[in-house]
Specification:
About 2% of the residues have low confidence. It contains twelve helices and nine strands. It has two domains: 209 residues, Spore Coat Polysaccharide Biosynthesis Protein SpsA, Chain A; 92 residues, no CATH class.
């Protein structure tokens, strides 16, 4: 395809306290085979002037490239920082890149061509496969293929994190962008896509290096903030699911409640776990996951130990 007929694509990189990996992310965006590209770095380090100063110096090194630095006046978090990037993007299409991840050179090119060749205006996102890199350096390949009911599949496990994404800007705007929650930002926006009837497709190739990080606190990165975000994610679904068939709606609500109960157990919030379990029994009385939560509430320490070991295996620690 002639360069003259290619649309500008914006790569949005939100960054928070990660100077060293930000450099790697920017250079992987610069190295893309696709052009024209603009890179928008959204600095969310309002409370960390030293980090912000380092980012300013870093961006100056790339002044020969189409790169812009936007500095949030206050800390907004990942979701709202991505929204700032979208609002300021000049491109018709948006790719997101977390400041600790790395694109392979043909990522944007292949996603763009896949989107154009699909010739389907209802597509809201194109994702890809990824190399998953654990903290000990070992790797595995993430290759999730679409199957079944995507709204439900995404509720079980987010189909693709934001660094995987290629999106038409208009589709992001049409659903109101990312939610102001501390986690589940990717899954909740995908949920809004599916509730609106949009489609998602993928490039069946590894186009990204995604880096896991060790949990600095809690088990499986669970905290009161992540629990609150999970509840917000559930509430967002319940507020917008009026057109979802009741059977499917109940299955998805159960999935949210199971995850909330699991996190409550890890946080020693047994009463909250019990409240979630009560609702789980009402929705799906015979589901075997009810027994897992019962076990976790009664044998809390054993349940937490098992979860911690599983998380270590995943992170490679």
């Amino acid at each position: 395809m002639s360069q003259d007929f290619r649309e500008l694509i914006s790569i949005v990189i939100p960054t928070y306290k990660r100077n060293e990996t930000l450099k790697r992310a920017i250079e992987s965006a610069i190295a893309q085979t696709y052009s024209p590209i603009e890179i928008i770095v959204v600095d969310d380090n309002a409370e960390f002037p030293d980090v912000r100063n380092q980012n300013e110096l870093l961006i100056k090194k790339y002044c020969d490239y189409n790169i812009r630095l936007i500095e949030n006046k206050k800390n907004l978090g990942g979701g709202l920082s991505r929204n700032v990037g979208v609002e300021n993007a000049k491109g018709k299409y948006i790719c997101f890149l977390d400041d600790d991840d790395e694109y392979l050179p043909e990522k944007v090119e292949k996603q763009y061509l896949t989107y154009i060749n699909a010739n389907n205006d209802n597509i809201a996102m194109v994702y890809c496969y990824a190399n998953m890199i654990r903290v000990d350096g070992t790797t595995y390949i993430h290759h999730k293929d679409l199957e079944g009911v995507l709204l439900f599949e995404n509720a079980i496990n987010c189909i693709a994190a934001t660094s995987w994404w290629f999106c038409p800007k208009e589709k992001l705007i049409s659903v109101g962008g990312f939610e102001n929650i501390t986690s589940r930002q990717d899954a909740s926006l995908l949920m809004k896509f599916f509730l609106k009837g949009y489609e998602v497709i993928r490039v069946p190739e590894i186009l990204l290096n995604y880096f896991w990080h060790d949990a600095n606190s809690g088990i499986s990165k669970v905290s009161l903030k992540t629990l609150a975000a999970e509840k917000q994610y559930k509430d967002l679904f319940m507020e917008n699911c009026s057109k979802v068939p009741e059977t499917l709606r109940n299955k998805i609500e159960y999935q949210f409640l199971y995850r909330i109960a699991h996190q409550c157990i890890l946080l020693k919030e047994r009463k909250q776990a019990g409240n979630a379990l009560h609702k789980m029994f009402k929705l799906r009385f015979t589901d075997k996951r009810n027994l897992r939560i019962v076990f976790g509430i009664i044998f809390n320490n054993i349940y937490c130990l098992i979860s911690k070991r599983k998380n270590r295996g995943k992170l490679g620690t």
